[in-house]
Amino acid sequence: xxxxTLVLALALLAFAVPSTAEEIPTRRDxxxxxxCGCDQHGIVFAAAGPCPGxxxxxxxxxxxxxxxxxxxxxxxxxxxxxxxxxxxxxGKFHVYTVSVDGEPVLSQGxxxxxxxxxxxxxxxxxxxxxxxxxxxxxxENAGLMAWIRSAAGTADHVLTVCTGAFALAEAGLLDGLRxxxxxxxxxxxxxxxxxxxVLEGVRFVDNGKFVTSAGVSxxxxxxxxxxxxxLGEETAVRTARYMEYAWSPREETED
Length: 255
Prior knowledge:
This protein is α/β, with parallel strands linked by helices. The protein folds into 2 domains: 1-62, no CATH class; 64-242, Class I glutamine amidotransferase (GATase) domain (Rossmann fold). 32% of the residues lie in helices and 18% in strands. The strands form 4 sheets. The chain has a 7-stranded mixed beta sheet with strand order 7-4-3-8-9-13-12. A two-stranded antiparallel ribbon has the order 1-2. The protein starts with a helix and ends in a 13-residue tail after the last helix. The relative contact order is 0.11.
């Protein structure tokens, strides 16, 4: 590497990565690149300016809602990637991944996900997304369940995909509400959440703060529905069109 290139790379790294934990910007104080696909997406910068990766103007986090997507060993790929695509594609959300310890996790045996945060340093989300998959890795981790309860308590919206609903059931957060999950886990959720009305044959169920969806691709429908409620139906339709995803806005669509 040429000396000038090395100096520039080190300068950009120093700009992007705070030197101490105390200097890490909060979700309200930093700046991020819009979801353009460049390799700087997800990095929180301390000051405004052009993105060093693509040149686009960095966006203030205070102007974006924070969307945390939990990932863990065995997490279903489309369960987290589908909602992530929806929220990121709008350009109006700061989307990031969180794992229990910040270490890479394996999804479905062939995709390694490198989380941006651990539960110890993750920004507090406005929207928390809990995907399904190997959900026992979540339910059997006391520290992770405590984080879910805390993050869900302060978030404006909590979304689950597939068996992610079991995390909310375990936390007692579905009591008195309606919910759904993957069609193969309906009876099991009814057993685990006896004070919850578990619906079968629907794509998603919206309780206001807590929104649960059926399996895999249903998380995309749920996320578009939430985007439509927050940013307007036109934005949701435009996002679905960008994704080449056939979607019709409606409440609790049939599975």
